[in-house]
């Protein structure tokens, strides 16, 4: 791979462009960031939980605040790596690329890293998958779609849903190829002949069966080689997007857990101190009067240290990354990797498996399964079992968006695009919208009640 090609700025499906916008002082990659900020899918993240149900009094992170913080860390990582790349490859400057451009790409891609996540977090992903794997009105579609399409439905993946949303005509984002590729941490489809488990980029999948050609076009544009049928190397900047997310959720979920009393301040301090090493000064920390101030200074110092470590590892591995010989998470091999592993183990035990989180996940399963059931049943009866199409089904289908594709389906027509649109509708909801609609379609509450 070559950096000059990897940093291409021609917008997807939008004709040619230059590295600097003639209509403003913003670069193309800064425009990417701004378009994302003002998009409806990004705004919806404000009412999607990150880990915890949102309490009345104590601040904890939503998907929106988490994404903004990941984007901020991503900009720091990208700018620092950009300084290194501009120094190592002077011809990048001749192509109009600056270190700030590289920071802007990582920042924009990081801003979108959770944009495809459904309501109720990872439990929402499992709920959508389980509906098709186990529910009768999920199973009815199995013989109507292809094997790869069925694999998509039975293994919902927020990363692939995010890729779909970034390229969606309805969203109208038309982002730069470099930003979309940096977003795509798992450049493969769900069904592959043989997954290379040694490669981090093969752990999950990043695009649906009906978007293989779109990713292939993206890879060709940027000079990203394939390593197997429909499987590709990562864009190098995807490693930085992943690192920004790893840093933020490791440190900030710990901070939220402490804020909510799921672990004591002393334990959080003991977990973060190994990251700081000689920088950790207990006597100075004790000069801060409140727990929130102590957590805030520890968080800031820990993130700064982890950014420095990830930048150094990326610089060390940059040639291997370009050659496709490195495919691991940066945070797995930095000096603080052991400390992060300890934080992760404690977080699983005391935070991710805490009662409030488990209760939220249980509710998420009920809500999303219930919504998918009523809509999938009505669609199946409308187009594939018309003798069972009822008045209730008619009422349910009137609740779908006006833009929902309600024409052209029926016997011998593959319903995969129809189901993708249904999943777009459900997964795009906020937590509150999903819960409110579930209550209404199940008769638990009435409009205006």
From TrEMBL:
Residues 63-250 form the HD domain. Keywords: Hydrolase. InterPro entries: dGTP_triP_hydro_central_sf, dGTP_triphosphohydrolase_C, dGTPase, dGTPase-like, HD/PDEase_dom, HD_domain, PHydrolase_assoc_dom. It holds the Pfam family HD_assoc. Coiled coil: none annotated. This is DNTP triphosphohydrolase. It comes from Mariniradius sediminis.
């Amino acid at each position: 791979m070559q950096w000059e090609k990897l940093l291409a700025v021609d917008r997807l499906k939008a004709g040619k462009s230059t590295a600097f916008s003639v209509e403003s002082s913003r670069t193309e990659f800064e425009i990417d960031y701004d378009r994302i900020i003002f998009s409806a899918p990004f705004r919806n993240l404000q009412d999607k939980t990150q880990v915890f149900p949102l309490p009345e009094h104590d601040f904890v992170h939503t998907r929106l605040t988490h994404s903004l913080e990941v984007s901020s860390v991503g900009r720091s990582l990208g700018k620092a790596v950009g300084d290194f790349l501009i120094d190592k490859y002077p011809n990048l400057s001749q192509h109009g690329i600056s270190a700030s451009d590289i920071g802007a790409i990582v920042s924009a891609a990081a801003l979108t890293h959770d944009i495809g996540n459904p309501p109720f977090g990872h439990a929402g992903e499992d709920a959508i998958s389980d509906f098709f794997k186990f529910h009768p009105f999920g199973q009815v579609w199995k013989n109507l779609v292809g094997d790869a399409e069925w694999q998509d439905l039975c293994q919902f993946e927020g990363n692939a849903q995010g890729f779909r949303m970034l390229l969606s005509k309805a969203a109208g984002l038309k982002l730069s190829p470099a930003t979309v590729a940096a977003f795509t941490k798992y450049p493969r489809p769900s069904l592959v002949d043989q997954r290379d488990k040694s490669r981090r980029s093969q752990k999950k999948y990043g695009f649906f069966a009906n978007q293989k050609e779109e990713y292939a076009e993206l890879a060709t544009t940027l000079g990203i080689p394939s390593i197997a049928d429909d499987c590709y190397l990562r864009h190098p900047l995807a490693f930085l997007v992943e690192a920004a997310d790893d840093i933020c959720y490791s440190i900030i979920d710990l901070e939220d857990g402490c804020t909510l009393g799921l672990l004591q301040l002393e334990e959080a301090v003991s977990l973060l101190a190994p990251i700081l090493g000689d920088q950790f000064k207990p006597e100075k920390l004790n000069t801060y009067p409140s727990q929130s101030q102590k957590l805030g200074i520890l968080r800031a110092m820990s993130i700064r240290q982890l950014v420095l470590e990830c930048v150094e590892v990326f610089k060390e591995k940059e040639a291997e990354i370009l050659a496709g010989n490195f495919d691991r998470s940066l945070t797995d091999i930095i000096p603080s990797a052991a400390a992060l592993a300890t934080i992760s183990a404690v977080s699983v035990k005391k935070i991710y498996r805490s009662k409030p989180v488990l209760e939220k996940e249980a509710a998420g399963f009920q809500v999303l399964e219930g919504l998918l059931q009523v809509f999938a049943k009505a669609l199946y009866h409308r187009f594939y079992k018309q003798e069972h199409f009822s008045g209730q089904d008619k009422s349910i289908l009137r609740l779908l968006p006006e833009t929902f594709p309600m024409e052209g389906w029926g016997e011998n027509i593959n319903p995969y695009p129809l189901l993708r649109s249904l999943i777009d509708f459900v997964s795009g909801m906020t937590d509150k919208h999903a819960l409110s609609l579930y209550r209404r379609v199940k008769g638990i509450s009435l409009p205006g009640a």
